[in-house]
Amino acid sequence: MTSVAFHPWARAESLGASMPEFASFQDEPPQMQSGAVGKTGFLRLGFEHRSGQTILANLQCRAPYMVQRALHCDEAMPSLASVFLITTTGCVLQGDRLALDITLGSRAQAHLTSQSATKIHAMEANYAAQSQTIALDDDAYLEFLPDPVIPHRHSRFLSDTQISIAPSATLLFSEIIQSGRKHYRPDECFGATVLSISTSAARPDGRSLFAEKLVIEPRRYEMRQTGVMNSFDVLANVILCTPADTAERIHERMQAEVNLAEGMAFGACRLPNDAGLIFKVLGRETAQVKAKVREFWGVVREEVIGAALPPLYLWR
Amino acid sequence: MTTGNDNFDAPRTAALLSRLLQFGDSMFPIGAFSFSLGLESAVQEGVVTDAATLRAFARSAVEQAARGDCIALITAHRVATAGDVDTLVRIDAQVYARKLSDEARSMSIRMGRKFTEMGVEVVGAPLLYTWRECIARSVTPGCYPIALAINFAVQDLSAYQAFVVHQYGVATTILSAALRLMKVSHIETQQILYELTGRTEEMYGIAATKRLSDMASFAPLTEILAAVHTRAHVRLFMN
Fold it and tell me: I need a surface site. Which of A58, A105, A156, A281 has the fewest CB within 10 A?
């Protein structure tokens, strides 16, 4: 396995091998070996601004990841390239190693989303890992708003996102994490074994901006504990990297509130090193949380671009 | 650790114990009394209402500190013992980069700087002067866990003792704020403190085996409460 280091998913592999929360899950699945062909997907998307429009200039993919083409369907932002991330397997399984590389050249504008929720299946051996890198050049603008992650009972999932962002660029990156399929079986709610979600950002010259590592281990730490999840079931963790003056205007406009009666809590904090904002939402149901993330997205688009959001999809 | 009477250096042990008490005292003048670690918003928003929810809230805070700041504290203690200032600067930057709210950052920096300042004036070791200089020249932000680690390392107090002081500080900050913010008795807060300090050994085990990159957290509601606090009209505490 000498060439492993050159594979795009090598990073996901090495993170899983070194993080302590996955130390006891290094056994191999009885089915296909971890990281085998068919269990390693990667996707490279390179967006460029060319003659007034953003195009998908570079596209490399390997199953289960798939992308068809960039659409220019957003009426308020006709130059915006919209891309749907497709996974042909429809779920994440034990031993999966995924890598996603997104690059936006200077002034490129893109919107990335997934077709549906990412379901992480129950695991009895090993774990699933995904590594994401996002690089934004000067004045680039990216909305990366995938559908929620649904961890099934006994799932083990690692996600690591590394952001490189120019000071003038804007990145809106949302992760919505459900407690599980709580309407299917009560023990599916916070039934995952471990979810480890890391995000870190730096300037292109390497100056570190911020880092966050969320480790959810319901068996080790009580999820319903006061200050952790209380009675909430769904979390949205939204990162906005944008120039400080824009971030300040957005912060001014977003309220912060804890409403236990309605089962909703949200608020934005300023990230260190003038990186932007982090906006967190807690709710009992996914729809409430998605609506609040959409509200934040609307404010961001208005303040950064001066454009309105597209109307809601009928089926999303 | 000395257990028997053989080679027991009583005066030295007494001095170290006194210093541990002095620098770990909740009244040590580094301004801990002006923070509530999110409790003020938690009380205002009805998240903490009684002794039971206060106990759970304080327990969350102590656990979060063990999983995050304390990994840096223990690493920094080892590095400070070796006198490696460059690595201390790197650890400090990583702690700062993980403080994702204004109020969490300003608390860590205010207490860290004051603690360093007090260390220079009271203990006066060369590493403390160097660290103060690094902060003054904006080479490093000067977060609290690093300041505590350096101070204890130069006094020959162990990483374990620094950890105890850190966690005791987190618990007493919340509990003494609770006495001013909500209906709770001194007896109840002392019972909670006694219960929380009983878990110190277990939590040290969590923090001491981890690398700096393993610093983690998961307390979304506490983070939202920090966002609420910045916008509150009436504030008694700075976080």
Answer: A58
Provide, as residue numbers in chain B, all residues whose Cβ is less than 8 Å from the Cβ of A267: 223-228, 231
* Residue of B143, B133, B182 lying closest to B166 (CA atoms): B143
A residues 154-213 closer than 8 Å to B (CB): 196, 200, 208-213
Rounded to whole angstroms, the Cα distance separating A201 from B72 reads 19
Domain positions in chain A = 41-304
Cα gap A95→A89, rounded to integer Å = 14
Hey, are the CB atoms on A257 and B228 less than 8 Å from each other?
yes
Record: contact A228-B218, CB cut-off 8 A: yes
Q: What is the DSSP letter of B217?
A: B
Determine if the pTM surpasses 0.90. yes
The pLDDT tens digits for B218-236 are: 999 999 999 999 888 788 8
For residue B105, the domain's CATH number is: 1.10.4190.10
| ipTM for the complex shown | 0.94
Number of domains in chain B: 1
Tell me if B207 sits within 8 A of B71, measured CB to CB: yes
Cross-chain residue pair B224–A265, CB shorter than 8 Å: yes
